[in-house]
Write a structure and sequence with these properties.
By secondary structure, this protein is an all-alpha fold. It is built from four helices and no strands. The chain is 57% helix and 0% strand.
């Protein structure tokens, strides 16, 4: 009986292509990493941005790349005491 699901070989080839395109967009085209990931997710691979980042991190780790790939964290809203007063009494 054949294994069901996605082909491991196809996933491996896709992941290699994702990593190569990330290098292209960030190193050759000089696009910021977050913009490159967003573009790749929406226009090239149709995967979530999280999945694209995960593939890139794994590829860097597997290739023994000692450079740390840093992805920007989403900005969180900053609250001051006046803002926090608005939430008093809410559960």
């Amino acid at each position: 009986m054949a294994k069901k699901g996605r082909s491991a070989e196809l996933i491996k080839r896709r992941n290699a292509k994702v990593a190569a395109r990330f290098v292209y967009w960030t190193e050759v085209q000089r696009l910021r990493s977050d913009d490159a990931i967003k573009y790749m997710a929406q226009n090239e691979f149709f995967l979530s941005e999280f999945m694209i980042m995960d593939i890139i991190k794994k590829a860097a780790r597997d290739n023994g790349d000692d450079r740390k790939i840093v992805f920007p964290h989403p900005r969180l809203p900053k609250f001051n005491t006046h803002d926090m007063e608005l939430f008093k009494g809410e559960k």
